[in-house]
Amino acid sequence: MSFGIVTTPTAALWPTLRFSITALALASGAANAAPLVKECSKDGQFVVGFSQANNAEPYRQHVNDELVAAAKKVPQFTLQIADGAGNVNTQTSQMDNFITQKVDLILISPFEASPLTPVVGRAVKAGIPVIELDRKTVGNPGKDYTAFIGGDNFKIAEEAGKYVAGKLLPEGGEVAVLEGLPSSTPAVERLNGFKSGVKANDKIQLVAEQAADWLPDKAQTAFAAMLQAHPNIRAVYASNDMMAAGARLAAKGAGKEGQVKILGTDGLPGPAGGIRAVAEGEWAATFTYPTGAPEAIEMAKSILLDCAEKVPTVVTVPTTAITSDNAKQMMGH
Amino acid sequence: MNDAVTIRESAPGRQATQRRLDFFAIAVRFQSVIGLMLVAIGGIIFSPRRHGLILFLAPDNIANIVRAVSETGIIAVGMTFVIITAGIDLSVGALLSLSSVLTATMMVSAGWGLLATLLAVVATGAAFGAIQGIISTRFRLEPFIVTLAGLQVARGLALVISGNQYINISYGVGPGLAPPIFSVLGDRLFNNTVPVATLVFVVVAVIATFVLNFTRFGRYVFAVGGNERAARLSGVPVTLVKVAVYAITGLVSAIAGIVHAGQFNFGSANDGTGYELTAIAAVVIGGTSLFGGAGSMVGTVAGAIMLGALANVLQLNNINAALQLLATGAIIVLAAVLQSLVRRREGLAR
User: Fold this and answer.
1) Chain A residue closest to B319 (CA)?
2) Which residues have C-beta within 8 Å of that of residue B190, sequence separation ≥ 6?
3) Do B270 and A57 touch (CB under 8 A)?
4) Using the beta-carbon criterion (under 8 Å), do A270 and B165 form an inter-chain contact?
C-alpha cells in the first residue's frame, strides 16, 4: 500500500493559525450550469486524497497537520494523505492510485511542476476535481486543474521588505539578505520580493546577499562573514525561519545580538518555530507562509457538499506579519 | 613525523627517480597544507579591508572559519581512517542528523541527564558504525552499498524519532529543559574568541592523529589498506580493524551531531545532508588515497580548514554560491590528479 492515513496526534502540538482570509478570486470565464461534481450532497460520505510532495520537511508536516485538523471538522470527509517522499515517480503512482480508488477530490502539492502535470490531467479527465496547494503544475487553473490555493512568495517577502523600510529602519541603514537554495523558485521569488519591498526607502542599502540553501548552519557561516565585511549591517532578512535562527547565532558570535534586527519567513508554530523566536524577542519579525489548508477544505466543502458550479480558480492567501505586537498572542492560541 | 606512511614494497625502477620523486612526493603529501597556505594568501590579497585591517585575518573571522568547519572536520577526521583502509562511509551526514535528534529527544523529551545522554548518543553512533562494518565484512559487501543503506536507515530513524519536527532544546532547570551547560557548545571561550565547537574538533583531531601515527592500531589501518592479504598473512586482525574504523566514523558522527545540537539548540532530521561529501572532499584534498594504504591526518585537517577558508573569502566578497561549488570541484580534481601522478611515478598506478 503506497499511501497511509495520517493518524499522528501531532495536530494538538500546533496552535491553529487564523489568517485573515481575503481570497483573491479570479473566476474563470467558463460558467457551467452543472455542479463540478455530480454526486455532491450534504449528507454523503467523501474521500479526499492529499498527495503531499515530501513529508520529511517540517513545513510540509505542518501543512499535513493543518489539513488533518481542518478535515476533522467536516464529518462527511475522510482524508487520506500519501507521502510523495520527494520523488516525482512515487508521487505520480500515488496519484494514479487515488484515481483508481475513485476518491472524490484530490489535493496535491506537486514536488515538481512538469513531471506531475500528466497525472493531474488524468485525474481531471476521470472527473475528479484537483485543487493544487502551494505549488502548481503546468497549465491553467480552472481548465487543467480545478484551482490553485497558496501563498505568494514574492508578496510575502515584499511585505517583509516594506516592514524594514517603513517600520524597522525608517532612518535607513545597511541590510543583508540570506537566500534559500538558489535553484528553487521560492528562493528567487523571496529574494526579489524583499528587494522590491525595501525600495520604498532609498536610505536603505542592500550590502550583501548570500545563498544559505534554507539551512541554519550555512546561514550562520554566511552571515558571520557578512558581519565581518559589513559591521554596520542593521537588519538581515532570512528567506526562512531556520536561516534566521542561524543568523541570530552569527550575530551572537559577533557580540551583536540585539543590535542586528533579524527577520524570518514561514512563521512556523512550535518551540523551534519563528513565532516563539519573535515572542521571546530573539527576532524582530517573521512573515507567515500560509498553508492554505483551511481554505482548501473550505473549497472541498463547497464542491462536494454545496454542489458549487464554479469556484475561484486562484486563491492567494495573504501573509501575516508576526511582530512583537502579536507574537505572544499567537503563541497562546 | 611519520604521517602518511606508505606500506608498500619498493617497485622496480624506483631508485632511478628517487631524488626527483622525493621532492614532488613530499609536496603532494602536504598538498592540503600548501593548498591552505595558497588559499590564505589569496584570502589576504582579495580580502576586503577596513581602516587598513585585512578582514580575512581578523581574529573574529578566523574564529568564524574554524567554527564553520568544525562539524565536517570532526567527521573528516574519522573518515580518514576508513578511507586509508580503502573503504568509504556515506552514512555520516545522516548519522549526524540522527545523533542531533537523539540528543534533543533524550535530554529534553525523555529527561535524561547530560552525561547519560551524551554517552548514549556516542554509544549509539559507534554501534551503528560497527554494525555497518560487521555487515560489510561478514557478507563481503562493498562498504559503499552498506553505508548507502546506512544513510537511508539513519535518516529514516531520525525522521521517525523526531516526527518530522525540529526538536527544540530549551535550557533551564526542570522537566523538559536541558542543562544550561550544554549550550556552551555554541559559545566562544577565552574572552569570546575561541569557539567551543572548534575546541572539540581540535581534541578529536589530536587524539586521531596520535592513534593513527603512534599506535599499533594505526599501523594496522595502513596495513589493511595497503595490502589486505599481506596484512592478514602477517597476523593483522583485518576484520576487527575494518569493523573498528566504521565504529570510529559512527562515533565521530555522533560527536558532530552533539556539537550540532548544542550549536543550534535543536535536533533536526533534515540537517547534515551532503556532509559526507564535504568530509570525503577534505580527506581527498588532504592527500589520503581512495585506493587505501596512504593518508595523512594533518592533511585532512588542513583540507577541511582550506574548504572553509575558501568559502569564507568568497563570502566576504559577496560572491555567489555557484562559484564556491566550481572552486571546490576544481580543487578536488587537482588534488586527485596530483596523487595519481605520484602513484604513477612510483610505478604503483592501478
Assistant:
1) A210
2) none
3) yes
4) yes
Look up the pTM and report it: 0.76
CB-based contact B270 A253, cutoff 8 Å? no
Please state, as a whole number, how many other Cβ atoms lie within 10 Å of the Cβ of residue B221: 28
pLDDT band at B332 (very low <50, low <70, confident <90, very high): confident
Contacts of A217 in chain B (CB under 8 A): 68, 71, 260, 263-264, 271
pLDDT digits (tens, 9 = 90+) for B206-234: 999 999 999 999 999 999 998 888 999 99
Is there a contact between B300 and B252 (Cβ–Cβ < 8 Å)?
no
The minimum CA-CA distance between A209 and chain B, rounded to whole Å, is: 7
The 3-state secondary structure of A229-262 reads HCCCEEEEEECCHHHHHHHHHHHHHCCCECCEEE
Q: Is residue B70 part of a domain?
A: yes
Each residue's pLDDT tens digit, B252-281 = 999 999 999 998 888 888 888 889 999 999
Intrachain domains A21-151+290-317 and A153-289+327-332 with the same fold: yes
The CA distance from A73 to A281, in Å, is: 35
Q: Is residue B322 part of a domain?
A: no
Residues recorded for chain B:
350
Task: Tell me the C-alpha distance between A314 and B343, whole Å.
Answer: 63
pLDDT reported for residue B23: 72
- In chain A, where are the structural domains located? 21-151+290-317, 153-289+327-332
Contacts of A7 in chain B (CB under 8 A): none
pLDDT > 60? residue B78: yes
Say which DSSP state B174 is in.
Answer: S
Q: Are A322 and A262 spatial neighbours (Cβ–Cβ below 8 Å)?
A: no
Sign of CA dihedral A25, A28, A34, A38: negative
B29 within some domain: no
Residues B102, B108, B109, B114, CA torsion sign: positive
In CATH, which superfamily holds the domain spanning A153-289+327-332? Response regulator (3.40.50.2300)
- Distance from the A217 Cα atom to the nearest Cα atom in chain B, whole angstroms: 8
* Structure confidence at residue B350 (pLDDT): 42
Q: How many domains does chain B have?
A: 1
Test mutation, A209, A228, A230, A268, chain B, max B CBs within 10 A? A228
Identify the pLDDT of residue B8: 46
> pLDDT tens digits for A36-53?
888 888 888 999 999 998
Write out the DSSP string of A53-74.
S-TTSHHHHHHHHHHHHHHHT-
**What are the strands of the beta sheet with A77-83, ordered from one edge?**
A77-83, A46-52, A105-108, A130-133, A147-150, A314-316
State how far the Cα of A47 lies from the Cα of A58, in Å rounded to an integer: 25
Assess if CATH 3.10.20.340 describes domain A21-151+290-317.
Answer: no
Residue B189 grid coordinates: 571561550
Give dist(CA B139, CA B141) in Å, integer.
5
Judged by a CB distance cut-off of 8 A, whether residue B67 touches chain A is yes
pLDDT of residue B55: 82
Task: Answer yes or no: do A8 and B163 touch at CB < 8 A.
Answer: yes
Please name the residues between 306 and 335 in chain B that touch chain A, using a CB distance below 8 Å.
Answer: 308, 311-312, 315-318, 320-322
Separation CA B339–CA B175 (nearest Å): 54
Contact residues for B261 (Cβ-Cβ < 8 A; gap 6+): B99, B100, B103, B104, B169, B185, B267
Q: How many CB pairs under 8 A join A and B?
A: 105
- Where in the sequence is the domain holding B156, given as residue range(s)? 64-299
Query: Is residue B16 included in any domain, yes or no?
Result: no
Considering CB atoms only, which of A225, A271, A272 is closest to B64? A225
Mean pLDDT over each residue of chain B, to the nearest integer = 85
